[in-house]
């Protein structure tokens, strides 16, 4: 079985490595390295011939070379990506959320269920019967959008509040239309009374529902559209009241409605069951403590977790079956995150036979097998005898799980982003689109290369700008109607900036940790500022990857250094998973 090794992400075969040395067994890997060395040899020959022509092709060749080197690593969807370096051997405790982390809900089946139940709730409180004809479309919504409760628009913004995409119903607005409502194409993200960020996977159904409702009322002859809502005779419904009705409907479905009931009635339809889950948690419990902190109630948690660990065997075939509680040192339900990471709530004990809470506050020591309700992050540290930096908390909620645990407690964080698998597929499968966009950026820079402040010449870049706009749109459409979760063209989204700021590690699934040893050092890449990434060192060959002008000597030296580093890593590092 092939497994990732070292920081270069080479692949090795643990069955054939022998003597503790890594042996590269993949034919693709060998061919890629061979191609890289062949390219290096070409650069050597051309450098000796004195050919130092500068051109775009050199830049594209070096990027292709680096792409070949990178391809010898672990398959991207199975990787863990690093924002801040983290030494796994220093982690003394693994904490987990349940929903969309341990329990991965099947998409779009689960979102469709939540969407349908919310629509039924709206109709029951007086909304038109026609809403029952709505059908959830998973290709439209993406996480991280902002709903403007004043104008009823869905906005995709960057970290500073600049508007990247604006949609009214299903009508994508153009620049002039956007500026009529947002003169600077900018919003104040801090205005939480007006702008609501739809950051979670649970928000996907309501994101699509907002668009459906705005589109319905805009096109229904019974209603007259206004700037901030709709009129039906003497009745006026603002976008803000519509927003509040949807939010109340979603909360009702989750806490009082039949969403959980219908989920547990058909777990195979709505919940992913992964046999690697008990294996990974058993390995974690061998090297550290493990706890569960979920906002779900005990009865629902019990049914979901029992299903997830319902295998005929234990962590491995041949081992006896174990109840799900045995994989955790501490179990907390009704955690009420993000309040859990601040003042928290009263810690109480759950009667697991009835599902009810026992009277009084629990003040005793940690007891294995007992399920607790409420509590706080401070109580977790006290019960388990650990500090904040000793904990890595794994969850899917950028605000409730990651941001608050990082800012208030200093916990290390691992963000689960299920959409990452699709994002990586598009990123690799549509690489030609990204390369063309980069080439256009280079060509734009070339037009101004010989101009300075004394120049009266104004290059005509209108056609180039139109081409860049079209390529950006084509690239966005590869991901879905609202584009990528992480970017629009070359600009990062608000969600992407939050991931980079608050998540130490992130991956499509925390199961990816199975492919790394618990002594692994997740090393963050160096993040360079523009003055560092675009300016060469005086005596060190450093390639300016933003410049279209690169000499072949620079390419050669970069390739040599990359190949040498890769070869050294492949020859010395071995991982037994």
Structure description:
Strand 6 and strand 7 (153-157) form a beta hairpin. The protein has three domains: 1-80 and 551-577, no CATH class; 82-104 and 271-416, HAD superfamily/HAD-like (Rossmann fold, 3-Layer(aba) Sandwich); 109-267, no CATH class. 39% of the residues lie in helices and 14% in strands. The radius of gyration is 27 Å and the shape is globular. The longest helix has 22 residues, at 27-48. It starts with a strand and ends in a 5-residue tail after the last helix. It is α/β, with parallel strands linked by helices.
Shape: globular
- Tell me the major beta sheet: 9 strands, mixed
- Would you tell me which CATH topology of the largest domain applies? Rossmann fold
Rg (C-alpha, Å): 27 Å
Given the helix and strand composition, which structural class is it? alpha/beta
Helix content: 25-40%
CATH architecture of the largest domain: 3-Layer(aba) Sandwich
| Chain-averaged pLDDT | 84
Number of domains: 3
Termini separation = 10 Å
Number of helices: 18
Can you identify the CATH superfamily of the largest domain?
A: HAD superfamily/HAD-like
Give the neighbour order of strands across the main sheet: 3-22-19-18-5-14-15-17-16
Query: What's the CATH first level of the largest domain?
Result: Alpha Beta
Kindly estimate the percentage of residues that lie in beta strands according to DSSP: 5-15%
Would you identify the regions where 5 or more consecutive residues have pLDDT less than 50? 1-73, 545-549, 565-577
How many individual β-strands?
23
């Amino acid at each position: 079985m092939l497994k990732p090794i070292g920081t270069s992400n080479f692949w090795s075969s643990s069955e054939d490595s022998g003597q503790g040395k890594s042996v590269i067994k993949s034919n693709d890997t060998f061919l890629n390295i061979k191609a890289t060395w062949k390219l290096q040899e070409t650069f050597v020959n051309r450098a000796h011939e004195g050919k130092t022509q500068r051109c775009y092709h050199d830049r594209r060749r070096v990027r292709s070379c680096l792409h070949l080197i990178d391809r010898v690593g672990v398959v991207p969807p199975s990787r863990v990506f690093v924002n801040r370096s983290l030494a796994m051997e220093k982690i003394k405790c693994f904490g987990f959320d349940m929903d969309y982390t341990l329990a991965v809900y099947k998409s779009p089946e689960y979102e469709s269920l939540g969407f349908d139940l919310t629509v039924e709730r709206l109709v029951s409180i007086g909304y038109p019967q026609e809403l029952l004809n709505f059908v959830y479309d998973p290709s439209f919504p993406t996480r991280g959008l902002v709903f403007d409760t004043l104008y009823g628009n869905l906005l995709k913004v960057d970290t500073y509040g600049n508007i990247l995409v604006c949609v009214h119903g299903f009508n994508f607005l153009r620049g002039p239309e956007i500026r009529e409502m947002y003169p600077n194409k900018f919003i104040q993200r801090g205005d939480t009374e007006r702008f609501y960020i739809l950051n979670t996977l649970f928000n996907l159904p309501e994101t699509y529902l907002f668009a459906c409702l705005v589109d319905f009322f805009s096109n229904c002859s019974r209603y007259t559209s206004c700037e901030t809502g709709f009129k039906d005779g003497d009745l006026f419904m603002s976008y803000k009241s519509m927003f509040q009705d949807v939010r109340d409907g979603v909360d009702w479905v989750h806490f009082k409605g039949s969403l959980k009931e219908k989920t547990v009635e058909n777990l195979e339809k709505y919940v992913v069951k992964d046999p690697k889950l008990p294996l990974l948690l058993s390995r974690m419990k061998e090297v550290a403590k493990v706890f569960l902190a979920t906002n779900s109630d005990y009865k629902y948690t019990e049914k979901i977790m029992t299903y997830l660990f319902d295998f005929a065997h234990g962590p491995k075939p041949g081992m006896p079956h174990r109840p799900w509680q045995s994989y955790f040192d501490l179990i907390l339900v009704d955690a009420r995150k993000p309040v859990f990471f601040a003042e928290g709530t009263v810690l109480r004990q759950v009667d697991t036979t009835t599902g009810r809470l026992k009277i009084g506050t629990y003040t005793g020591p940690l007891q294995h097998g007992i399920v607790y309700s409420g509590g706080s992050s401070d109580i977790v540290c006290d019960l388990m005898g650990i500090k904040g930096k000793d904990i890595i908390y794994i969850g899917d909620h950028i605000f409730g799980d990651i941001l608050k645990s990082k800012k208030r407690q200093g916990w290390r964080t691992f963000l689960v982003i299920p959409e990452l698998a699709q994002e990586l597929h598009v990123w690799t499968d549509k690489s030609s689109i990204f390369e063309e966009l980069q080439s256009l950026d280079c060509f734009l820079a070339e037009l101004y290369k010989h101009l300075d402040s004394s120049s009266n010449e104004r290059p005509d870049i209108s056609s180039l700008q139109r081409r860049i706009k079209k390529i950006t749109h084509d690239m966005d459409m590869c991901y879905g109607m609202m584009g990528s979760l992480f970017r629009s063209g070359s600009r990062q989204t608000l969600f992407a900036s939050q991931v980079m700021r608050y998540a130490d590690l992130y991956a499509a699934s925390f199961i990816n940790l199975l492919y790394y040893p618990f002594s692994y050092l997740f090393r963050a890449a160096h993040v360079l500022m523009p003055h560092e990434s675009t300016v060469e060192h005086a005596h060190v060959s450093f390639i300016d990857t933003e410049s279209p002008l690169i000499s072949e000597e620079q390419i050669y030296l970069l390739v040599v250094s990359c190949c040498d580093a890769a070869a050294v890593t492949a020859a010395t590092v071995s991982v037994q998973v």
